[in-house]
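Sorry to interrupt, but I need a hand with the structure work. Leave the record below and I will have a look:
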Amino acid sequence: MGARTTPELLDREDELARLTEEAALSAAGSARVVLVEGPAGIGKTSLVQHFTNGAVADTATVLRAWCGEWERAPAFGMVRQLFRPLLAGVARDDLLSGPAGPAALVLTEDAAAEPPADAPFAVLHGLYWLCANAARRGPLVLVVDDAHLADAPSLRWLRYAGRRLRGYPVLFLLTRRTSDRDAPPDPLAWLATDPRCGLIRPGLLSEAGLGRLLTNALAEPPTPELVRACHQATGGNPLLARSLAMDPAGPRELSRFTSLRFADTVRGWLAGFTEAGRAFAGALAVLGECADPGLLARLTGLDLADCRRAGDHLWQLGLLRPGLPLRWSHPLLREVVYEQLGPRQRDDWHRRAATLLHDDGAPLEQVCAHLRQAAPAADPWTVSLLCGAATQAIGRGAPDVAADYLARALAEPPPAAERVEVVVRHGLAAAFVSPADSIEHLLGVLPEIADPPTRLRVAVALSETLTGQGREPEAIEVLGRAADELAGSEPDVARILRGRWLMMSVDHSAAHRAEVLATDGAALPCATPGERVGLVALAHGKALYNAPARETAALAARALRATPVAELANPLHTSSVAALTWADELDLAAHYSDQAIAGARRTHSIPGLGLHLALRAQVSLFAGKLAEAELFAGQADELVPEELAGFMRFIQLGVHGSVLLDQGRAAEAEELLHSLAVPVTRTVIGAEFHQAVLARIRIERGEVRAGLTELLAVGEVMRTAGHDNPVAVPWRAWAVRALLTLNEQAEAVRLAEESLELARQWGTARAIGTALGLLGLATGDLALLAEATGQLAGAPVELTRALLDTGALLAERGDLPAARTALRRALETADRCGAGGLAAAARDRLAAAGGRFPTRPAAGLPALSQSERRVVELAAGGYTNRRIAAELHLTLRTVETHLSTSYRKLGIRSRAELPGQAG
């Protein structure tokens, strides 16, 4: 084929100026998303190509992907188009280093046979870091044409990365075709609420612009009458006007011309082709694109020379893009040609295309893209390939794509001997995007599963999916029934199931309270996985049912000591870390939490890492290290995907919200916690913790009655579930304060006395001291408050509150010197642990009592927050910003902000001066 000149870009000055502005913003470090949308033929692709081939190509790395109907099948097909060319260079290892490692599962030819735990989220996070690594080398422009046709995993990554790449010079440039036809839900709808998304809608061409377009496109210059008529008929749509002007019947029917006539025009062209030309066009529509003209010849049975002549003819008409691979010049052309094929012809060519591609050694997903379009035929070969493609998709972190392959395999259908296995695999994969379908399939097939490990896996997955759908009783029943059925043949598998059954039962009801509290776990063995899970479950139950803290902590510590280090990252073990934290065994909790975090980072277990970081933040919060707690909680925020709107997300946001509230940042806490929808189930401890923090926020902003009502509702759920631990979800503490604000002293005293009784049962100084302080506040008893401050020496945040209450009560009684002493101590403690909100309250009360107080250092090392100190330490040790971001799982912008703030506080100008300052 000969060379073709690049079409002139007409009437697009405003759009180009807008794109230039967006590129400048992104290059300055403000990641942007630009969506260019409009009807077919308006010139979206031409606009984007003209822009990215211009000056931006000299200042940024431009990566491109083109999406079409057949590109929806491969897992991460759009992402692979974008990044594979980048990895062909010498920087491959650098780009895939650290957290970006799991991106290799997508970008290499062979997916992992055994994908990492939580592969979907590990891959999303790895691809995000790959993009971040690439952007650190210079501005990055990611162009996705027809993004609405991208595969689901790629769109999932686009959303995940687009919301996290703040501070990186990345421009996402997407095109989307709008249509007046009935269309499925818009996969790009989330962009409408993204403040960083710019929307560009190219306008229709002016009459003058359309005249220039037709002059360039037609063999003979158009008459002014033809140009005017085409403009009136099409409104200035370039593709429609061009097709109309080339249609012999067009000039006679201009008054009736609509966009629907475009399809008639294409069919008219096809009718005038030779038989070989029509076959070539139909086969290319089936393939979507083709890099080998010989494949088209074999598919159609045509001579290779006839195929080349047909392709050249379509190119001369402007229907194909120049060069290889052979591709339609506009997706609408392929759709029209494909739709005019008969069902039998489509089926025959798709099956034949699959066979030819398989014989040629094409990627499995390319073969299966055609098998999915062919009619079911009870073909074992088809089932085998579809199952193989599903395995590959799972290995690439795309269970939704795997579920599609397996659903098609079930429709084939598979041989009877393979049916159960295919149903199981489909149900497990479908849980990621279609929990209801997953539940239906797995419940139906569970009794037929003979393999014990498979039954264990299915029962656990089914219980988790049922819980996520608010069907906890069914989840508990599934685990219990499976445990009973395997007790005789596979006792340790049964123990694992029984342990999980107990944990879930304890989470949702008080039915096993007496049994758990009466069980002495001191002699329980923990040599096997099942025994360890049983011990974890018992410690979990004792913690929630408020057994003595010392007994509970001993069980939790035994379970953690017996667990291999490689298994600590499992989210199951966060319950043991939580029990140690509530029992004030903070050093031990931090030790095992740090080990679990390190293990989760090694294995790229993103949800597990996020949950362990949240629990580590709670350990720091209990220790009175709020800045450190915020650092851990912030890392969890960066990691946990929005899709995990369950237990993990509730705990993570609840802990982070608590830290922000204690720092005096209620508005930020409110924004953070409202990012999560109301939970499906209200009886999981994480959901109630989240709700209690929301109630605290309401109280902080003055809605005391509403906040109290929410706290009492949380308390009712906790009581019903038998969760009496006063530390796990301290709703009583906040309810007592709200009641006193509302002058409901009698109820406040009753609740404080109840809290003290439960605290003595739990037995930690923190719990007892907090309850004593509440009762002293409610009754005005200074002796109780003095006893409380004595108990709370190891709980700085709670000590600060008790001292504030003591100072306020002393001031109210006129003992100002004693009040000032208590308030100064409260201020010193609050400043030391970073509780900004409590420190502000202490300053206000101290000033009202006539006291003086030191101002917080504005410069030097003491002025640095814990988060700033950690970043400065790493920078002083020679870490680059990129390595700091990877080490702490922060965005580059967050690292840069911490450093710039630290430079100002330290009175230095550059990184070179840090070692001397940071010591």
